[in-house]
TrEMBL record:
A UniProt-annotated Pfam family: ABC_tran
Domain (ABC transporter) ranges: 2-230
Protein name according to UniProt: ABC-2 type transport system ATP-binding protein
Gene3D superfamilies documented for this protein: P-loop containing nucleotide triphosphate hydrolases
Family: Belongs to the ABC transporter superfamily.
Organism from which the protein derives: Algoriphagus halophilus
Amino acid sequence: MIQVKDLKKQYKEAVVLDVPSLEIPKSECFGLVGNNGAGKTTLFRIMLDLVRATTGNVTIDEEDVSKSEAWKSVTGAFLDEHMLLAYLTPDEYFETLRKIYGMSEADLQNHLAKFTDLFNEEIIGKKKYIRDLSKGNLKKVGIAAALMGSPQYVFLDEPFENLDPSSQIRLKKLVLQEKENSQVTFMISSHDLNHVTEICDRIVLLEKGKIINDLREKSAMMSELEAYFTG
Ligand SMILES: Nc1ncnc2c1ncn2[C@@H]1O[C@H](COP(=O)(O)OP(=O)(O)OP(=O)(O)O)[C@@H](O)[C@H]1O
């Protein structure tokens, strides 16, 4: 479970995040939505100890992410391309991660096989450096990397952005499969209301750093979000 307690992030006088309490149980597909600047990326960055909270804390399986390392072995994430090694090819990158995660070559092949459709013959064996990939293909590499090492919690920031429509559909299928087969807890921020309502069990709406709605009723999610965003 991921637990957020009394969390605040402040830059000078501006409070950009203020979440008194939030619990994300295991195996939930958790969607995070909100307008630009609402605090989605900041929340994910604090949850991954990439940014320190001003007050409060986040625990993953009861370990404070800012104080322990244990959560790292069960967590995968792709927030942006800075998390990749741009001077490697995707093959070299996956091979490097394979060694870090102690996976066998067969494990890696089995893992990458799940991405065959999403990769669409543009990622593996192409001898193209990550720095030269299109934004959509960069995202695919990052998502495949985030799911390596059998993580129980996977954070994806705007996973559908820059993907072509076929890839968006393939990614949705993949997320649902991983959820079904491995009970992965997905944390997904997105501006795409259709995709996020389709795959998530729950959607939290952030406005100016505060949770203003926590939607769990699948049938009502889309209409509630549309009403909010059309204002
Ligand atoms: N290093 C920083 N210094 C000052 N303010 C910051 C910093 N990082 C983020 N912010 C501010 O925090 C607020 C939340 O930003 P954040 O990137 O988390 O929003 P977001 O919901 O992810 O937005 P978007 O949908 O545009 O990606 C914004 O007002 C942003 O300007």
